[in-house]
Amino acid sequence: MQVLLGDKEYFKSINQIKYEGAESDNPFAFRWYDENKMVAGKTLKEHFRFACAYWHSFVNDGSDPFGPGTHTFEWNKKSDAVERAKDKMDAAFEFITKINLPFYCFHDVDIVDYTKDVKDNDRRLQALVQYAKQKQKDSGVKLLWGTANVFSNPRYMNGASTNPDFHVLSHAAAQVKGAIDATIELGGDGYVFWGGREGYMTLLNTDMKREKEHFARFLHTAKDYARKNGFKGTFLIEPKPMEPTKHQYDYDCETVIGFLRQWDLLNDFKINIEVNHATLAGHTFQHEIQVAADAGVLGSLDANRGDYQNGWDTDQFPNNLNELTEAMLIFLEAGGLQGGGINFDAKIRRSSTDAADLFYAHIGGMDTFARALITADNILNKSDFKQFRKDRYSSYDNGKGKAFEEGKLSMEDLHAYAVESGEPEAKSGKQEYLENIINRYI
Ligand code: XLS
Ligand code: NI
Ligand code: NI
User: Fold this and answer.
1) Residue 338 has pLDDT above 90, yes or no
2) pLDDT tens, residue by residue, 204-245
3) How many alpha carbons fall within 13 Å on the CB side of residue 147?
4) Of 79, 110, 268, 83, residue with least CA distance to 190
5) How far is the CA of 137 from the centre of ligand 2 (A)?
6) Which among 4, 102, 324, 368 has most CB atoms closer than 10 A?
7) Which residues contact 313 (CB under 8 A, 6 or more apart)?
8) Protein residue whose Cα sits closest to atom 4 of ligand 1
9) Does the reported pTM lie above 0.85?
10) Does residue 207 have an active-site annotation?
11) Which residues of 269-304 are buried (b: 16+ CB within 10 A; e: fewer)?
C-alpha cells in the first residue's frame, strides 16, 4: 500500500509502519502482524480485514463527562464544513495508509458535520462520498461498513426507530437512507445497525412491545430500500446490553438472534460483535463469537477491550493476549468471518495526546490479534486440545448416547439405562490443564 497524502502531511514525523519481527526495537513497527504470513490457509491480512473506525480516530477529541477535549486536530481548522471534512478525510487516509489498514468504517456524521436541514445534510454527505470514492481509488483502501449516527443528536434522546414520536423516526430514516446510499456508492461490504438509543430508561413511560415492532419494521424497510438499490452486502446488528439507555433491545447475540428469527430477518442480517459490549452483557468475547458462529451469523467484529474495574464501555485498544487467544480458537474453528472484518472500535485515552499515540494503539491492537491467531493455530494443530474436547463427548458417539442424540430414546429408556449402568464415574473437565496449553503456546 502506498501512503496517500492530501495537500498537507498531518502525521509528518511518522513513516509507513512495516513488519520487522518480534526482535525489533522499533516502536513504530509490527512485531507479529506480517500481513502476508499464511496461517490456516489464509494470509493474516485476509483473516482479519482490519478497519479503522473514523469516529474514534478522527472525531473523538478526548472529551468526557468531566471535561472538554484534549486532542487538537490540525484538520479541524477551516470554517466551511465540507472543506473541513475534506481535510479530515485527507488526514484519515494518510493515517490509514501509513498504518496499512485495508478498510475503514464510518457513521454519516463522522464524515461531515450535520445541521438540522435534512437536504443540506444529504448534499454534504454526497460531496464527501465523491471525495472518498477518489481516495479509495487512489489508495486501494476499502469501506468495510457504513452506518448512521442516530443517537447523538438531541432529537434522538428517546430513541430513533423506537422513538414514541413518529416524526423523530422519520428523521432517523432520512439519515439511514443517506448512509445506505453512501455505503452502496462506496462499495461497502456491510451496513451496521447499532441500536444507540433503541431501548428504554424506564418502563413507566415505555410500550416495549410496540417499540420492538417499530424496530423490526424499520429494519425491514431499510433492508428493502438497500436491496432495491443494489446493495449486495450484509446488514449487521451490533448488540450492546446498556449504555446509553438502561436497557437496550439488542442486548447480546442470543437476544439478537431470537429477534432476527422472530421478524424473519435472518437471511439478510448477521451480527457485529464488540468485545466491550460482550463483557458489559456479562459474557466473554469468545462466548459471543461462539453463539454467533453456531447460529451462522458471525458477521464482523468490533475490536476493543473493557476495563475490569470500570463498568462501562471504555473502548480501549486490545492488548490481552491470553483472552484474545481463547477468542481466536473459536474464530478459527468457526472458519473465520463470513465477509466482515475487524474494526478497531477503540479510542486512545484522553491523556494520550501525541500524534504517535494513534499509531502505537493500532500497532498494539494488530500485533495482539496476529499473535493470538498464530498461537491459536498452533494450539489447534500441535496440542491435544481439540481431541480432549471431542473425547469429552464420546459417550454420545455410539450405543445409547447416540440413540439419544438421534431422538430414539424415551424417558423410560433413559430411566432404564440409569438403573442398569449404576453411578457414573467422575470425569475431570481439566480446565487448568487446558489453560496451561494456552500459556505454553503463547
Ligand atoms: C458504540 C458502538 C458504535 C458502533 C457503531 O458503543 O460500538 O461505535 O460500533 O455505531
Ligand atoms: Ni462498535
Ligand atoms: Ni462500543
Assistant:
1) no
2) 999 999 999 999 999 999 999 999 999 999 999 999 999 999
3) 23
4) 268
5) 26
6) 324
7) 240, 243, 276, 277, 280, 306
8) 194
9) yes
10) no
11) bbbbbbbbbbbbbebbbbbbbbbbbebebbbbbbbb
